[in-house]
Amino acid sequence: MTVAFGGKDSGPVAAPAPGTVDSATQPASPSPSGMPSSKEQEPEPEPPAPSDEAPSASASASPEADLTAPDGYAKALSTMWGLAPVPCTQHEQQLIDLDDGTSRTEDENNGAVQDPGGAELLYWPDTCTGLGDYQLRALPNTRVGLLRVDAPKSFDSCRAAAGTGFGALALSERNDREDRGFVEGAALCSVTDKGTVAMAVIEHISGDAVDDVSVSGPLYVWAATP
């Protein structure tokens, strides 16, 4: 028997067998009502905005210092100062100029100084017995004093402290240092021969009764303006 096909009709198409469709093309299972589809990712949270409170260099160096300059004085300049003794057998003493923190050495002469050259502080070996015996004092005819650790670190406080005087202190004697208030966080203050107000903060102290003591820290200087 002859079967005739009409026109372009290709006839019935067989339905695919169950399970033969590629699973990768299967639509995602419907999600429960109100829940996002597996293809609809939730947006990632935005990163937190950066903090506006970035610590400044001056704040990290001395957070309690008020460096405001009064009328007649320039903005405070910041540098460093320090005491760095050599073995007393080298017969050297150190002179420190608080106008800029510079120091120089000269031959030790039992604490006597021929020419201060603008220095305010003298650090010299007292007896040179082989133990730590360096002494620190203000040079004659200078205005130097100690600003205690609990006092405000400011121009006015420093200028006032400069008039209190600073006699010889054996830095190797810890008890003497603490009794006098020469401790970390305190400061030596001076009104120099140039009219500058200087605040030498005692930030680090190292050494003991056997090793000569070294001291260092920031120096803030308010120069008088013409």
Strands, helices and their partners?
Layout: H1 57-61, E1 65-66, E2 77-83, E3 92-96, E4 103-107, E5 121-125, E6 134-138, E7 143-147, E8 153-154, H2 155-161, E9 169-170, H3 174-180, E10 187-191, E11 197-201, E12 204-206, E13 214-222
Parallel strand pairs: 1-8
Antiparallel strand pairs: 2-13, 3-4, 3-5, 5-6, 6-9, 7-10, 10-11, 11-13, 12-13
Describe the structure.
The protein is mainly beta and 226 residues long. It is 8% helix and 27% strand. The protein has three helices and 13 strands. The protein has helices spanning 57-61, 155-161, 174-180, and strands spanning 65-66, 77-83, 92-96, 103-107, 121-125, 134-138, 143-147, 153-154, 169-170, 187-191, 197-201, 204-206, 214-222. Strands 2, 7, 10, 11, 12 and 13 form a six-stranded antiparallel β-sheet that branches. Strand 10 (187-191) and strand 11 form a beta hairpin. The longest helix has 7 residues, at 155-161. Mean pLDDT is 78; it is low at 1-40 and 48-63.
| Helical content (DSSP H or I, runs of 4+) | under 10%
Which parts are unreliable, with pLDDT below 50 for 5 consecutive residues or more? 1-40, 48-63
The biggest beta sheet is recorded as: 6 strands, antiparallel
SS summary, helix count? 3
Instruction: Tell me how many strands there are.
Output: 13
Task: Describe the structure using short key phrases.
3 helices, 5-stranded antiparallel beta sheet, 8% helix, 226 residues
